[in-house]
């Protein structure tokens, strides 16, 4: 938590606290919300929030922004530039905030605590999703049935499994389940689970007496006579 040195208010986000600190500055005041800023230029940037003005436009997708630095960060989506590198693994990120959040994987830091139970999370988004367990809020609704879900991931899984039959996937070519070892893809989760056993050399099915008799024919060359009818 970050604490304001002038009034003691606490913030979980450093950027949020920096915005709040402007309220203690009397030099340039916003007439809309009363926030204070140390310079006229800073006030002008802030006033765009109220006016809706977005003078900085992306030349690739036409999205617009109120700040030049926000546009610069957005451009990395198109260029693939990821200047923020983790010094403990080989992952890279396009935003400093994403790197900071990732570092909690290594440090184990979980600053976002649930006030209704003893669980804590590394990101505010994870905490928000968790809170739906207590509130039973399910904002993600299926447009093909009356089911609703607490997370977008659960809705996506529902849409694949329940609203798109296997035979439709075969015709459409959709294979949402990918093997992390060899990248083979499957239309069903159970198909992927069966395939994974190849890599793990897992053989969970033990031979039964009938299967054993069938198997022994490989060695005894005892092949049952097959009768075919027209």
Entry summary:
Helix content is 43%, strand content 12%. With 230 residues, it is of the alpha+beta class.
Q: Give me the CATH architecture of the domain at 57-107, please.
A: 2-Layer Sandwich
Q: Give the overall average pLDDT.
A: 78
Largest sheet descriptor: 2 strands, antiparallel
Give the CATH level 1 class of the domain at 57-107: Alpha Beta
Order of helical and strand elements: EEHEEHEEHEEHEEHEEHHEEHH
Percent strand equals: 5-15%
List keywords for this structure.
alpha+beta; 14 strands; Double Stranded RNA Binding Domain; 230 residues
Please tell me about this protein's structure.
By secondary structure, this protein is α+β, with helices and mostly antiparallel strands. Among the domains are: 2-51, Double Stranded RNA Binding Domain, CATH 3.30.160; 57-107, Classic Zinc Finger (Double Stranded RNA Binding Domain). The protein is 43% helix and 12% strand. It has helices spanning 14-21, 40-51, 68-79, 96-107, 124-135, 152-162, 166-172, 189-200, 209-220; strands at 2-3, 10-11, 28-29, 36-37, 56-57, 64-65, 84-85, 92-93, 112-113, 120-121, 140-141, 148-149, 177-178, 185-186. A two-stranded antiparallel ribbon has the order 1-2. A two-stranded antiparallel sheet has the order 3-4. 2% of the residues are buried. Residues 223-230 have low confidence and may be disordered.
